[in-house]
Design a protein that fits this description.
Blueprint lengths: L7 H7 L3 E4 L2 E4 L11 H13 L6 E9 L9 E10 L3 E10 L2 E11 L28 H4 L4 H7 L5 E5 L14 E8 L7 H12 L20 E12 L9 E11 L2 E10 L4 E13 L10
Antiparallel strand pairs: 1-2, 2-4, 3-6, 3-9, 4-5, 5-6, 7-8, 8-10, 9-12, 10-11, 11-12
Helix pairs in contact: 2-5
Length: 296
């Protein structure tokens, strides 16, 4: 699909997969201003595809690998393997395919609701979202410094409102500790099942996470000699939550090495409940300017 400001209605339409055959589904792709399909889109659509084959239970964990860059102009076919249906847990494997090749794989586990022991880390003490401003406003002088493709990214009006506790100046980055806290929510209320809230939380979790690994190095995703790409993504859903209410994404990066950066994220609701955790490793390469090669 053509470039879009990606409203909430469009985002929900993106989650409406077409059933092609038993265990086989097709989803549309959407250009949101990046050069390739946004990883969070494939992640969320894979969750929806897997859930279409599960009669009972909610997704509680997933482990995914990004294999190839997705083509935003082509649909994606999702092939679901029903690995196991147990009494409490059900396991699924999803392969996302474009142009005859896998671009993404996901292993997911679903669980029937159960009672059990409970504990959690406390939410960090940070300002509430009402006391923070959105990250979306970029001065015109700064926009003129970036290529047209990145300009589309900065000027998009997405379905999520992101409000960082501490804003990072991507036009003049300075080395800082590898920690970030950002509030996010859908810009409007939605009436959808819990599964959709989990899928959209996974969609949003692909924003900002691996970027935490760049903070100690004073680099920015807009610089011409930087290549970044998500390699994998793991997520655990601990408790039900709504993505149209404020959620705090508290991220840290314990290590970067070997051209890769590792980042972890804890997602809390505004009452302080830990509702999900995420871990992602990304390729981070700084080298020759991208003039003679394609940027991932």
């Amino acid at each position: 699909m053509a470039y879009s400001n990606n409203t909430i209605e469009e985002l929900l339409q993106l989650m409406e997969l077409e059933t092609l055959e038993v265990n086989l589904f097709r989803g549309e792709s959407r250009d949101i201003g990046t050069s390739r399909v946004f990883g969070g889109q494939v992640l969320a659509q894979s969750i929806i595809a897997a859930s279409r084959t599960v009669d009972e239970g909610s997704i509680h964990s997933l482990h995914a690998y990004f294999l190839r860059a997705g083509d935003a102009e082509a649909p994606i076919v999702y092939n679901v393997d029903r690995n196991r249906d147990g009494r409490s847990f059900k396991s699924r494997r999803v392969v996302a395919i474009q142009h005859g090749r896998p671009i993404f794989t996901l292993a997911a586990s679903f669980q029937l609701e159960q009672e059990g022991l409970e504990h959690q880390f406390e939410m960090p003490e940070v300002p509430m979202p009402e006391d923070l401003s959105s990250e979306s406003h970029i001065p015109e002088d700064n926009l003129n410094q970036v290529p047209q493709l990145l300009r589309r990214w900065f000027t998009r009006t997405g379905p999520f409102d992101f409000r960082p506790v501490k804003k990072v100046d991507v036009f003049n980055p300075q080395p800082q500790a590898p920690y970030s806290d950002i509030w996010f929510r859908l810009c409007e209320k939605i009436d959808v099942p819990d599964l959709m809230h989990r899928a959209l939380m996974a969609y949003a979790s692909d924003f900002h996470l691996v970027g935490t690994a760049t903070l100690p190095h004073g680099i920015s995703f807009i610089q011409d000699d930087l290549m970044m790409a998500s390699l994998d993504h793991a997520m655990w859903f601990h408790r039900p939550a709504r993505v149209d209410d404020w959620l705090l994404y508290s991220c840290d990066s314990p290590s970067s090495s070997g051209g890769r950066g590792l980042a972890r994220g804890s997602i809390y609701d505004r009452s302080g409940r830990l509702v999900a955790s995420a871990v992602q490793e990304g390729m981070i390469r700084v080298g020759k300017p991208a003039g003679n090669r394609s940027k991932t």
